[in-house]
Specification:
With 429 residues, the chain is mainly α. The chain is 79% helix and 0% strand. The protein is globular, with a radius of gyration of 21 Å. It is found in: Cell membrane.
């Protein structure tokens, strides 16, 4: 069985940067103009999530001063955003299944724009929490429906490559977001970051309205997802959860997302507070790590030609654990801050492989008529688990770099029991 060799991954042969560029050219050159246009629009839509998270990270200190609150309370705006994003996932997928892809997407983007504007005029940190929650509910429609459009429009053998392309282009967002956000804060304060989000939302509306076709096919009345009764949405979720492959890789995606959010939450503390570096340096370091994840997504696309997505997941998860141990070992050995930052770069690098691979594996069992509900539930589980991990990790943290490293390692190790249980059940069956 394919799962029996999940961890039997031969060493990677050497890849040059020219090889990576060739992968990129092949993926684009094998598409026609309409397919390229759709991929670009979907990339812009899925970039709203990382932009909404990373764009205002450099404004944390200023926001804490203006609202006269602690940095922990400002960081809670990230947690409320994750919570809203998780809940919103359950809304937009079923709506996309019943009413098509385009109309729900436009409605979600309008909600995102209005909430972004409301964040600018927040008078207290509690109001900001509330508006960030609403902003996330609207913004999550873009990434949910983008995943559905991929499974609608592209052949099954191409979806992994398309998801990898989306992950690669999405990697640009966290590269440039902190740098742009830092400049926006300098020019006009933290409010400018949310105004920029509103503008991005408006551009997304224009692209969707004029360039994105309706990709949902017309189904007969026998399809419960399109014409079902009042309880059909929840029945569809039950059907989706009965797919073991979906549950396994949605859980793994949630663990990886949680690890990434722990890194994002701790990075300003590690770089600026402990390392004593400026906001500009933090933005550059953050961008370099995001660039590494984008390169990792390139490699996932190439590796898929030789290895199954399951093997890629096992290999990347192993790398995360190894580099978490390296980080802890270097910390105990008294390594310099530059060495620790290099170890963190290596820790986040495999995440670029895991996101497209787990998405592809989780969505693979579903056809067009129920892909919306599957996409919604996937996102809800992913961000819900990430929300829980960030809350628990925040409570366990005592401000030391060692606890941060141990948290990284423990979260990475959570992937393997999920894979082991899945593999055992398959072998028994």
């Amino acid at each position: 069985m394919r799962s029996a060799s999940l961890y039997n991954i031969s060493p990677l042969d050497r890849r040059t940067f020219a090889d990576v560029i060739q992968i990129w050219k092949f993926n684009w050159q094998s598409m026609n103009r309409k397919q390229i246009t759709i991929v670009l629009i979907l990339s812009f839509l899925t970039a709203l999530e990382p932009l909404s998270i990373d764009l205002f990270l450099p404004a944390f200190t200023q926001m804490a001063e203006q609202f006269n609150t602690s940095s922990t309370n400002v960081q809670m705006s990230l947690s409320t955003f994750l919570a809203g994003f998780a809940i919103g996932q359950l809304i937009w997928g079923p709506l996309a299944d019943r009413y098509g892809r385009k109309k729900p997407l436009l409605i979600s983007l309008i909600i995102f724009i209005l909430a972004s504007v409301a964040c600018v005029y927040a008078q207290s940190i509690e109001q900001l929490w509330g508006m960030r929650f609403v902003q996330a509910i609207g913004g999550c429609g873009s990434i949910v429906i983008a995943r559905v459009v991929v499974t609608d429009y592209f052949e099954s053998h191409r979806t992994m490559s398309v998801f990898a392309i989306l992950a690669m282009i999405m990697g640009v967002a966290p590269i440039i977001a902190p740098i742009i956000g830092n400049q926006l804060v300098k020019w006009g304060g933290w409010e400018f970051t949310f105004e920029a989000m509103a503008i991005l939302g408006a551009l997304s509306v224009l692209f969707t309205w004029f360039l994105l076709p309706e990709t949902r096919r017309v189904f007969t009345a026998s399809k419960t997802l399109s014409t079902g009764g009042q309880n059909s949405v929840w029945q569809n979720y039950i059907v989706v959860l009965q797919k073991r492959q979906f549950v396994v890789y949605a859980l793994i995606a949630g663990v990886v997302q949680g690890a990434l959010m722990l890194y994002i939450g701790n990075a300003p503390f590690i770089v600026m507070d402990v390392g004593g570096m400026s906001g500009d340096v933090f933005s550059i370091i953050f961008a370099v790590n995001a660039l590494g994840m984008m390169l990792s997504a390139y490699l996932a696309s190439r590796l898929q030609k030789r290895y199954s997505a399951q093997k890629i997941v096992g290999f990347a998860a192993t790398l995360m654990c190894v580099f978490a141990v390296v980080y802890i070992g270097m910390l105990l050995a008294g390594a310099s801050m530059h060495s620790l930052l290099a170890a963190l770069f290596l820790y986040t690098f495999p995440m670029g492989m895991l996101f497209p691979a787990t998405t592809d594996l989780a969505m693979a069992p579903f056809s067009t008529d129920n892909s919306g509900s599957a996409s919604s539930l996937f996102g809800a589980l992913q961000l819900g688990i990430a929300f829980l991990i960030t809350i628990v990790g925040g409570h366990l943290s005592d401000g030391s770099l060692l606890i941060v490293g141990i948290t990284f390692l423990v979260v990475s190790l959570l992937i393997f029991p999920i894979l082991f249980i899945s593999r055992t059940k398959k072998l028994n069956s």
